Amino acid sequence: MPKGSPELTASRKEEIVNACEQLYRTMSFKEITIKEIGAATSFTRTSIYNYFQTKEEIFLSLMRREYELWAAELEALVQTRETIPAGAFADTIARSLEQRSQLLKLLAMNHYDMEAHSRPEQLKEFKIAYGRSLDAMRSCLQKFFPATDPERFIFVFFPFLFGVYPYAVATDKQLAAMQEAGIRFRMHSIYELIYACVMQLIGD
What is the pTM of this model? Predict the structure, then answer.
């Protein structure tokens, strides 16, 4: 890690993650390289290695940030509401994850590689953020729906999130292949999928 203030280090890392996020909106994980990310920052490509050793670490940091932002939304819900009906809760969760499509997209790909090619300290930071989202969801359920088993909800809902993006977003090539294969299938939005799942898990 280069010498410098913690603020400068945090700012540089944030700029790198922001560049990765922007590229990921139009490019695939395989297409994005350290060179591509470096070209989208205000400093040299080689400087990236002072902060991240692999592109997988950058993607892991992006996913960590997405979990932190989502957890913060759930925590705010607990702090600002005393009660919330099931439908309104499902709507809130669905809208929050609809805005976190990057998180869902990252979950849909094999992020075992991201974890395998990241240093232990990077992986620990990610797991802390992931754990925070679990705790935030537990807090929501315990406060608003005490009759719902939070561990059962988490056991179903969090693995379910890994499959949301592929069912909500498809390329023209994928849609054409399904049509040619004669598959009767209707795409659903991220909101529809999340809302339906939450309602089923907490009941009407």
Answer: 0.91
